[in-house]
Amino acid sequence: MASDLEKQAKEAFIDDHFELAVDLYTKAIEISPKNADLYVDRAQANIKLSNFTEAVADANRAIELEPSNAKAYLRKGTACIKLEEFETAKAALEKGASLLPGDSRFTGLIKECDQRIAEENGDLRKLSLETSSSTNMPTEDVQPVEIVNEPPNQVTVTPAKPKYRHEFYQKPEEVVVTIFAKGVPADNVAVEFGEQILSVSIDVSGEGDAYHFQPRLFGKIIPEKCRYLVLSTKVEIHLAKAEVIRWTSLEFSKETAVTQRVSSSGRRAPELDSCAKFAVSVSERPTYPSSKPKRTDWDKLEAEVKKEEKEEKLDGDAALNKFFRGIYQDADEDTRRAMSKSFVESHGTVLSTNWKEVGTKKVEGSPPDGMELKKWEY
């Protein structure tokens, strides 16, 4: 039944088995194709897998089936942000916010869209003034924008807006962000990755208010290679760098943007086509030892072993055994039966290849000259 598949899919999602969750939701949808919640949940799993286009498609289908489903607009907005479609994302989020007033998830993401749109338009200062002077938005809702580049120095948890200290360190190809949130259930943590955006939501109050950390990152990342772990004392986020460069900070700033985005010819790096960007990143990327196992051509290996065995030169009993093995390997079924029967019945003293001769009678032992055959009783 669809309900059983939905339950299994939710369990797989909680265990971070997102691909399995997508498969189970797909099977449930085949049974119950008019269930909007199934599309909403599959969209969330697709977002975790960085399948943002598929997530938008699922969200649109859910909206079509149930226009009042607020979560569908939340999923669409989240996926569109990852696709850097900020105008579309904002429109979807505003619609969802009107259906679910007071939900801080919509408020935080809408402000994220406003910030990104303002950055694209080069109008950050105007956005800051408009936000601070707004009388329609509570003061506490402005705080996520203010703390993006100035995180608190210590863990502070309040019923209205929990806050957690965070830090980061880096490796040549990875940045590890740690948020010190102790004892938070895994299903209360949502982490999403964009091309140069990290979005973390931790809902611990159960009253709609949640902790949001949504910085624009210093450099670009590879969303499909990013991952996160929810541990007993912290949330550990692993960001895969798109380029092997040293991040001087976790978050984006105008000073670092110039050095990262301008190529040696003076043109902005985003203007290069995908093939050119790939060529540049490959040529500039240093090589590091890898623990990834090399692919083994087993057919080639088997052929080499057989060739070595064939060319191997043996002496004495080893050479004789090899000779008999060759006969047995190339023989037909009757010859093999004759060899097996004669060898067993004669206690290893006779080896015949003539089935007509040994097939109708018992083969008696024939010890070598000067030796006698002795039967052992067990």
Automatic annotation (TrEMBL):
Keywords: Repeat, TPR repeat, Transferase. Belongs to the SGT1 family. PROSITE patterns: CS, SGS, TPR. InterPro entries: CS_dom, HSP20-like_chaperone, SGS_dom, Sgt1-like, TPR-like_helical_dom_sf, TPR_rpt. GO terms for biological process: response to stress. Residues 161-251 form the CS domain. TPR repeats lie at residues 36-69. PANTHER family: PROTEIN SGT1 HOMOLOG (PTHR45862). Residues 287-378 form the SGS domain. GO terms for molecular function: protein-folding chaperone binding; transferase activity. It comes from Parasponia andersonii. This is Protein SGT1 homolog. The keyword Hydrolase does not apply.
